[in-house]
Amino acid sequence: QVSALLRAPTSVRHRPLLPLVPRFDLAMCLHFLPVTALLVIAPLMAPEAMAYSCPPGYTGSAQHVTAALRASARAAVALGEPTNPADCSNEGATRQWNGTVLEYIGCSPRCCTCWKSSSPLLEAAAQPLELLSSSWGSALQNVYSAFRTIGDSPDAPGGLLVSMLDTTSTLAATEVSLHQMALNSGSCAIHHGNTCLAFSYLRKDLPPVVYNYPSTVPQLRVGLLVDPEIASSLMTGMFVFNGDTNERQSCANEAGMNVDFSSKWTSEEKGPFACMKSAARMAGVEQGASVFQSAEDPGQKLFGGICDPRIDTCAFMNSGGCMSTEDLGSWPGCMDPHSPEFKDFESCFEFQKLNSSSWEVRFSGSCLPCSQMYVCDASDPPGKAQRVYDAEASEFKAYVGADGNGFPEIFMQPKMNRGSSNNAQCKWKRDSWNSWISASRAAYRDALNAALGEQGNWNGYAWADPAAEGAYFNNEVNAYIYPDASSNLYTDQNDVFMASIMGVVVDTQTCEEKLRFLDGVPSSGKGGVVYKDAASRCAAFRAGAAKTEQQEIAEAVQAAHNLAHLIGPGTLVLRANFTTNAAPEPLMWRRALAKVLRPEQFMGAL
Predict the structure, then answer these.
(1) With contact defined as beta carbons under 8 Å apart, do 415 and 459 qualify?
(2) Contact at 8 Å (CB) between 200 and 122?
(3) Which helix (H) or strand (E) holds 41?
(4) Residue 519 to residue 534: CA distance in whole angstroms
(5) Which residues make Cβ contacts (< 8 Å) with residue 99, sequence separation at least 6?
(6) Distance separating alpha carbons of residues 489 and 484, to the nearest angstrom
(7) Is this structure's pTM higher than 0.90?
(8) Would 277 disulfide with which of 73, 87, 265, 503, CB 3.0-4.6 Å?
């Protein structure tokens, strides 16, 4: 294909394959050569020798391809790969350039690309390269090029960052800035501190999944597209799957409502939040009393959330770097009174009696899980335990093995779910970028295999089951935002962020379109209902929706254009039909694992 050939070194593209063959004989044998061979030979020949005959009403010739090759441009069209000598694999496929419909069609003597268009520009143009040289075409090619680039460090990672924003906030937005982004419900610390921003990381070797769970609130259809190489200095850490960072803010209550913890206690000595129950009894909390964390509890944010972003520990902690409060209750040191860590976990809580039947619990400043990092360590555990507190490093650690390949065993067994695969997972430090990528690919491969089951026995819980709390399959990259928007530190951060914006994306798929691959795939039956297709699943996911999806999509498109207007003239607005984060989509996931995923397969002109 053209794009593949253009990435080859110049010496390869222009190497004379048949320098001694007479021109007449070469033309005669073109029909028997593969498409890529034609492209390599094309620059050596006079344009008229390669001219194709397009059907009436179509325009296009190999002259265009030749011109693109000579200019070393990344062509936006490619010759179809033939399935037989008389046909093209992309026959009838269409693409849009600036509102002009281009159609792939077979033409003689060999497969090629012809364009059906009433556009005088296309019909009169000597080469379609003029379209690519426009600012819109150039910006689009920059996005595609970044997606296809695989880097090996957080400073030059390649790929794209996408931060999904709710439609309501985006429609009402009057500015675009880091501070405003941190206040939106697509962020990761929206009630206390506003020091965290969440992205999904996309690249040709990772599935095109963002935070887009098929719920009605919030509506996450609009996103900012960011260049990670420019925004690199803002990034603090990464998660293999969605990290539930809203619940990892140093034990702050980011739920926006009171959280009842006594309902999580069991009657047994051991179990979830046994450390809190033990501390409550020592504090005089009566049997049967309600114990809750107030929505106003800001937790134990390190330095109050205010720190130099160049200090890794502070920035990491204040962008979702400790364990979640849910995971605190399921950590061995909290669940087992015989654990050597149990006393430390008991000291996490302070209780205040409100009335005869209710108490408020707050997480104390001496609580290690609230004040220490919880990180992934790409090495084997020093003992039997895979998740431990490393007192020497002052870190909670999950030992995930060399290159992170042990991640699935710890966080995805015996089956994937939101509690273990999202909320309990460790977070990767910025300097563990390559191990994170390796662990992510291992986890995606394992997730797809687990969903497919043994001998084709599909596991329904993994296929967007409305009745099961399935895992969120999007990854997550976080940025720390200095909370004082009037400071020089924040201004410097915001300048970097604004410079990194590549465009705005909007997902225009309906729920059924996104989940169509699940037609004929049964869910687990949890809750007494088996969902067997996209329609029944989406009816459950969207129960009680206040608007139709057509209205939601129209508002999202309007919100995307509002965002682009605020960013400034020339801002790219793209359709980006991401795959769902509620289930593995086999086709796109396999292409990513094979490192052949193309951005054109899910992203293009709106």
Answers:
(1) yes
(2) no
(3) helix 35-41
(4) 6
(5) 605
(6) 8
(7) no
(8) 265
Q: Which two tokens stand for residue 400?
A: 């995930």
Work out whether strand 349-355 and strand 358-363 pair parallel, antiparallel, or are unpaired: antiparallel
Judged by phi (left if over 0) then psi (alpha if -120 to 50, else beta), residue 528 lies in left
Q: What is the pLDDT of residue 302?
A: 67
Amino acid sitting at position 235: M
Q: Which pLDDT does position 292 carry in this prediction?
A: 96
Contact 306, 482 (CB under 8 A): yes
Residues of the chain falling short of pLDDT 50: 1-92, 95-102, 104-133
- Cα–Cα distance measured from residue 329 to residue 336, given in angstroms and rounded to the nearest whole number: 10
Which of 600, 579, 576 minimizes the C-alpha distance to 590?
579
| Cα distance between residue 340 and residue 332, in whole Å | 10
What pLDDT does residue 497 have? 97
Distance CA 292, CA 325 (A): 13
Q: Which residues contact 19 (CB under 8 A, 6 or more apart)?
A: none
> Collapsing DSSP states into helix, strand and coil, what is residue 214?
coil
Tell me the one-letter amino acid at 50: M
Asked if residue 538 lies in contact with residue 214, where contact means CB atoms within 8 angstroms, the answer is yes
Contact criterion met (CB below 8 Å) for 510 and 535? no
Residue 414 and residue 446: Cα distance in Å, rounded?
12
Please give the C-alpha separations between residue 225 and each of 9, 142, 500, in angstroms, as whole numbers: 29, 12, 8
Distance CA 499, CA 231 (A): 8
List all residues 6 or more positions away from 45 whose beta carbon is below 8 Å from its beta carbon. 23, 26, 66
Contact yes or no for 481/179 (Cβ under 8 A): yes
Judge whether 207 and 147 are in contact, CB under 8 Å. Answer: no
Which pairs from 323-326 meet CB under 8 Å and 24+ separation? 323/248, 323/369, 323/374, 323/396, 323/424, 324/244, 324/247, 324/248, 324/423, 324/424, 325/247, 325/251, 325/259, 325/293, 325/363, 326/244, 326/247, 326/419, 326/423, 326/424
Angle, alpha carbons 205-211-212 (nearest 5°): 110
Residue 22 is given by DSSP the state -
Whether residue 226 contacts residue 162, with contact meaning beta carbons closer than 8 Å, is answered with yes
Which structure tokens are listed for 221? 């259809």
Q: Is 545 helix (H, G, I), strand (E, B) or coil?
A: coil
| Cα separation, 602 vs 35, whole angstroms | 25
CA atoms within 13 A on the CB side of 185: 15
CA gap 273, 263 in Å, rounded: 10
Q: Name residues whose C-beta falls within 8 Å of residue 141's C-beta, 6 or more positions apart in sequence.
A: 74, 76, 132
DSSP 399: E
For the stretch 177-195, pLDDT in tens is 998 888 876 668 777 767 8
Angle of CA points 249, 466, 292, to nearest 5°: 35
Strands 220-226 and 501-506: antiparallel
Is the CB of residue 298 less than 8 Å from the CB of residue 193? yes
Q: For residue 489, what are its two tokens?
A: 């530190």
Residue 310 CB contacts under 8 Å (≥ 6 apart), including other chains: none
pLDDT at 185: 60
Is residue 522 reached through a cis peptide bond, with omega within 30 degrees of 0 on the bond before it? no
- Are 200 and 193 within 8 A, CB to CB? no
Residue whose C-alpha is closest to residue 194's, from 531, 479, 444: 479
